[in-house]
Amino acid sequence: MPFALDRFRGIFPAALTMFDKGNNLDVEATGRHWDWLISRQKADGLIITGTSGEFIALRDEERLRLFHLAQDVVQKRVPVIFGSGHYSTKLTIEISEEAQKCGADALIVILPYYQRPPKAAVLEHYRRVRKATHLPIMLYNNPANSACAELTPLEIAQLVDEDVVHMVKSTFGTVEPVHELSYLVGDRMAIFYGSFLAAFEALCAGAHGWVSGVLNVSTKAARAMYDAVVVNNDARKGFAIWKKVLPLVHLYTHQQIGPVSDLAVYRSILNSWGLHGGYCRDPFFPLDQAQEKKLLEILAKTGWNDPDHVLDGV
């Protein structure tokens, strides 16, 4: 089945799931955040119940509640890719079928995690999921988080040739897989860079878009970078914008406020802007008072205390 993959272009935040202080799912706050990303930040699409959506901390029925929420909140304004991956092929298929019923535009399926199945089994996992759905599948190639062997560009191209996968989230520091896939099958699949380490370079190397948790707080700037690099072929401007985004990346990669999760940092940033950041599910604990103070100092120094004007002069 041919898919309209040109819908899957641009900036797709890996959207947060909101929890309250007692670790309970906060559906209303989640919906408000998703709507803000679309209506105010101009996201080109959303990834829900992915890694930044803490799918690993969700019960299956909670994931389904979020699927229904996306249907109600988004209302087809942008394409939404539902995270339906599970270690088990059977459960991945069951969750994917529910996502399909809830109006998903596509599925993002993580590599089978933790148990480290052999490569042939991983490829068969995707083939069986594909047989069970009529939706396009984004392969979430994230070996660092899944403990699974990565799929190489040649193996991904093989799955594209078989009409098994149609997009990829390439979650590596290097952009080498991006330009390899662009050369091999770039006209037949949507290639998304999936890390926050080299998004500018990835767009220059042929990525069709960017998926990341940091986009919960940087979508507008990322959109401007995408437009500069991909739409207007202006790498100089794109790099200038990327250097404005880097301070948000460095909060985590350089651990500038201490050993904290990136998701807790994004939540505190949202709170500092007068929005609702909510909580992660433990053991991703919120920032302490000293970390919050340091965060606010860094945001003020880098201009991110006023996100509406951070790109002024670029």
Outline the structure in words.
The protein is of the alpha/beta class. It has one domain (5-234): TIM Barrel (Alpha-Beta Barrel), CATH 3.20.20. Helix content is 45%, strand content 11%. It is built from twelve helices and eight strands. It has an eight-stranded parallel beta sheet. β7, α8 and β8 form a beta-alpha-beta unit. α3 runs parallel beside α4 (119-131), α10 packs antiparallel against α12 and α11 (262-272) packs across α12. The chain is globular and about 50 Å long. The protein starts with 9 loop residues before the first strand and ends in a 12-residue tail after the last helix.
Short description:
This protein has helices at 27-39, 60-74, 89-101, 119-131, 143-146, 153-161, 176-185, 199-204, 219-231, 235-253, 262-272, 289-302, and strands spanning 10-13, 46-48, 80-83, 106-110, 137-141, 167-170, 190-193, 209-212.
